[in-house]
Amino acid sequence: DFFCSINKDIKEITKDDILVYLFQIQKTRKISNRTLNTRRTVINGFFEWAVNNSYLQSNPCKCIEPIKYKKNERVPLTEFELKKVRKACKSIREKALVEFLYTTGCRVTEIENMNISDINFDANEVNIRDGKGGKDRKAYLTENAKLLLLEYIEFRNDENAALFVSIGKNAKRLRKPGIEYLVKAIGKRAELTRTIFPHLFRNTLATIMLKKGGDITSIQRILGH
Questions:
Q1: Confidence of residue 122 (pLDDT cuts 50, 70, 90)
Q2: What is the pTM of this model?
Q3: SS3 content of the chain, % helix, strand, coil (to 5)
Q4: In percent, how much of the chain has pLDDT > 70?
Q5: Which of 120, 148, 164, 224 could pair with 174 in a Cys bridge, judged by C-beta atoms 3.0 to 4.6 Å apart?
Q6: Other C-beta atoms lying within 10 Å of the C-beta of residue 220
Q7: Quick check: 212 and 205 in contact, CB under 8 A?
Q8: Using H for helix, E for strand and C for coil, what is the string for 90-150?
């Protein structure tokens, strides 16, 4: 709706036009600074593309500074909340997923791409292929996480190589949106006062490791930082 609001040829749009648009849209739609900055980023990205492809000589949005907003701090799960989440799991898949998230501290994209063959059950090791271009690393399973994973794999009746799959004979690799949906649904069932998401388990693992005397370097290595 940006270009409809401006009603100008892109070559005529100025920095002031963009500033007026941002001011008006926040005023009329009551959007947060975070959402407003996302719009600024999108507009800037478009003009950068136009410049790089020789449609424009300069980017009128380039001089507009990022809009500041307060980032919500990710508060880790308490032990009580974690117990409620575990208790709210209905299926063996949900139990295995929650325990795996908490035990390994994997990113959701790493779990999405993980295969059964990445698990060394004899050594309780998980080979994590870094999805951000970094080095592969290892994480370790607790006995409970190992038991739940083995039970889940034995329960399945598919031949998919993926560690977590959709339900049914034509099981497909469980993708990021599916994992996030499952975790959110479990959190609702647990009747927590906040929404939970996969990355929260990484924060929880790091916090608990620190409380137990783990050093920052080791924790960062496990989490792939």
A1: very high
A2: 0.64
A3: 55, 5, 40
A4: 87
A5: 164
A6: 11
A7: no
A8: CCHHHHHHHHHHHHHCCCHHHHHCCEHHHEECCCCEEEECCCCCCCCEEEECCHHHHHHHH
